Amino acid sequence: MVNPSAAIEDEERHMTDTLYPPSSRELADKRRALAPETEKTFQAFSRQVFADGALNAKAKQLIAVAVAHVTQCPYCIKGHTKAALRHGATRQELMEAIWVAAEMRAGGAYAHTAISLTAMDEAENQSKG
Question: What's the rounded Cα separation, in Å, for the pair 127 and 57?
Fold first, then answer.
C-alpha cells in the first residue's frame, strides 16, 4: 500500500525542484558576472544589515526567517534558517518566529475585510440610489 504522505512529499519535492533551481556556485557566478558592481554593493549591504547592532545577528536572522515565510522565498527560508541556527537560534525560536509571520499575514487579510465591507456598503448604497 502506498503511503499518502510519502506520495505528497515526493510530489511537493518534485514541484519545488522544477519550479526553483537549486542554488549553485554557477548561478552565483553568472549573477556576479552580469552585474559585478551591483552584486558587490548588495553583498556589502547584506553584511551590514545582518551585523550586530541594536539587534544582534540572531534576532535579525529570526526576523529574516519570518519575513522569508511571508514573502515565500524558498532560498531565503533555507538560507536564513541555517544562518539563524549558526547564530544560536533554537528550533523553538525559529518556529515561534514563523508563527508570528503566519499571524501577521492572516491578520493582514482579516484587517483588510474593512475594505470589502466598505465596498459592499458603497455598492448597496449606489444601487438604492
Answer: 56
